[in-house]
Amino acid sequence: MDNIVTVNQVTKTYGGQNEKSYQALKGISFDVQKGEFVGIMGASGSGKTTLLNILSTLDTASSGQVTIDNQEITQLKGNELADFRAKEIGFIFQDFNLLENLTARENIALPLSLQNVAAAKINAAVSKIAQRLAITEILDSYPTQISGGQKQRVAAARALVSEPAILFGDEPTGALDSKSARDLLETMDDLNKNDQVSILLVTHDPFSASYCQRILFIKDGVISTQLQRGNQDRPTFYQEILTTLGTFEQ
Amino acid sequence: MLIKLALNGIKSRWKDYLVLFSGLVIASAIFYMFEALATNQNFIKQNTTIGAAVIIFQLGSILLAIITLVYILYANSFLMTMRQRTYATYMMLGAKSGKIGQLIFMETLIIGIVATLLGIVVGTGLAYGVGTLLMQRMGGTIHNFQPLYPLAIFITLAFFMVLFLIAAIINRRQLLKQPILKLLHSSNTPTAIKHRPVVWLIEAIVGVLLLATGYWAMIHLGVLGLVLALITIVLGSYFVFNALAIWVLSLLRNAKLASKGLNKFTIA
């Protein structure tokens, strides 16, 4: 199997020369295979957000290498970095991060229009992903007119419209009610299984994590343990996560 | 699409932009008025009595220019902090820094051009009014005074375009200098004001001294005094306002006035 993400000995140290320094990541290594649905769990302060920020090129590692879709991202700068963000990665955040003054359609089209893609191509791509995520009816609504669950679907559509190599989710269900959360997770599962979308999800919620095929547990800046779902059904896996979390905390 | 995004940026912050916008209209209107009075050659030649007034008008417009420059830079950096998150979202979605720069230029220039044109219209009215008033006071009649004077329009437009260009360049530099993560997590409210009471006190005293020097020079030293006054009054006003405004603002904030839905920018 091909690796879509390879993380090799990544460290991140905060604090300058005159301040007390703090090492958030202490040499983390793992990889994500093409078409895999991987979860990263850990308590707050464990370094999971730092890791996601580095993987999604929003932050830089202090040392180590990160390769996404055969590109060494720690070396990217300026326009290369912008192109990489536009083409290779998609993000969904807890707080959606949609632009309030643009319709759902315009929000979804944004990554393509910022890359100067032709209008006809944009329209085709937006219609396709909207249909896939069942949001065709709300395309002309503004974010304030739709529900939280719908907003996150729009955000997911925006993340996927340029057909990225991997989708990053930072607590995407954090601001949703339980029904919308379940819907969103089932959609992600469906995209992963049927469209081979690779997904990396950062969460502290065991329910969200139970949709993943593999879970990495981060503690104090290193991966302390990992769980494989294998052939278990989701409720059994959920129980296993809870048990692991229970022993993990101590 | 770029224009659409720029217009959308203005629309989303319309209430805040409106404050900046109306300030700019007034500034450009007064600037135009001064210029219209100072550059009307026929008017000046035929009314020799107001010859000395031309210098005053020119000095007035320079004074106004400096004040406007400070105002634009201040107001713009204020608006920029509120727009950081949007720009960060664009960057995260793969907008190149060149594209972000274009967006900032467009937003700033759209506001600038509309405000300046509107200001010239208002300024024409003002120039006519003041010109008439001036003549009545001096007991003469108006000869050849054109409130809508091409040279004055040109100077006003050119001056304000340069101003906005400078503002846009500064905005762009400041935004692109910051790491994207910081922008993305920046709140929509501007940065807090630092508490430095001693600095304010010194500022206020220096400011008052400078203002006093300025007014004294204006009364006693003739034209030279006017030039001197121009410099000291600008500096003096800046110091006094800076010190006083921050002090009043922090008082207002302590009084929890800001929490009653009053936008910090509006207070500012």
UniProtKB/TrEMBL annotation, chain A:
Pfam families: ABC_tran. Keywords: Amino-acid transport, ATP-binding, Nucleotide-binding, Transport. PROSITE patterns: ABC_TRANSPORTER_2. Residues 5-245 form the ABC transporter domain. GO terms for cellular component: membrane protein complex. One of its GO terms (biological process) is amino acid transport. One of its GO terms (molecular function) is ATP hydrolysis activity. Gene3D superfamilies: P-loop containing nucleotide triphosphate hydrolases. The keyword ATP-binding applies. The keyword Cell membrane does not apply. Belongs to the ABC transporter superfamily. This is ABC transporter ATP-binding protein. It comes from Agrilactobacillus composti DSM 18527 = JCM 14202.
UniProtKB/TrEMBL annotation, chain B:
It is found in: Cell membrane. It holds the Pfam family FtsX. The keyword Protein transport does not apply. Residues 61-179 form the ABC3 transporter permease C-terminal domain. Keywords: Cell membrane, Membrane, Transmembrane, Transmembrane helix. The chain crosses the membrane at residues 17-34, 54-79, 100-128, 148-170, 198-217, 223-252. InterPro entries: ABC-4_Integral_Memb_Prot, ABC3_permease_C. It comes from the Bacteria. It is a multi-pass membrane protein. GO terms for cellular component: plasma membrane. This is ABC3 transporter permease C-terminal domain-containing protein. It comes from Agrilactobacillus composti DSM 18527 = JCM 14202.
